[in-house]
Design goal:
It holds the Pfam family GPKOW_C. The chain is built from no helices and 8 strands. By secondary structure, the protein is mainly beta. The strands form 2 sheets. The chain has a 5-stranded antiparallel sheet with strand order 7-6-5-4-8, with no helix packed on it. It has a 3-stranded antiparallel sheet with strand order 1-2-3, with no helix packed on it. A hairpin with a 2-residue loop joins β1 and β2.
């Protein structure tokens, strides 16, 4: 996701670098990283905007256990739809 145009419409960039405009939330699928310790950003709920590391996945319940950065080891359980793969810098960069 490159930009949010409205509360339910965004602009995305493909793996090939092309911009796709006018995508609605219902057209998108949440991508949960597969590696242990991969970083995610919380996009829904009280922790929205925070970055953390996946500690455990619960695929049968579509949930992940995430340790939030900069919160002294705070661990939260979140639905897949509440997080996305994060490839940006660290929060203290």
């Amino acid at each position: 996701v490159e930009d949010l145009v409205s509360a339910d419409t965004c602009v995305c960039r493909t793996d090939e670098g092309h911009l796709v405009e006018g995508l609605e939330e219902s057209m998108l699928e949440t991508v949960i990283p597969r590696g242990e310790g991969d970083r995610v950003m919380v996009v829904l709920g009280e922790h929205a905007g925070r970055v953390g590391r996946i500690l455990e996945r619960e695929p049968e319940r579509s949930r992940v256990l995430v340790q939030l950065e900069r919160e002294a080891g705070r661990v939260v359980q979140l639905d897949y739809d509440a997080v996305c793969h994060y490839v940006g810098g660290h929060e203290d960069d």
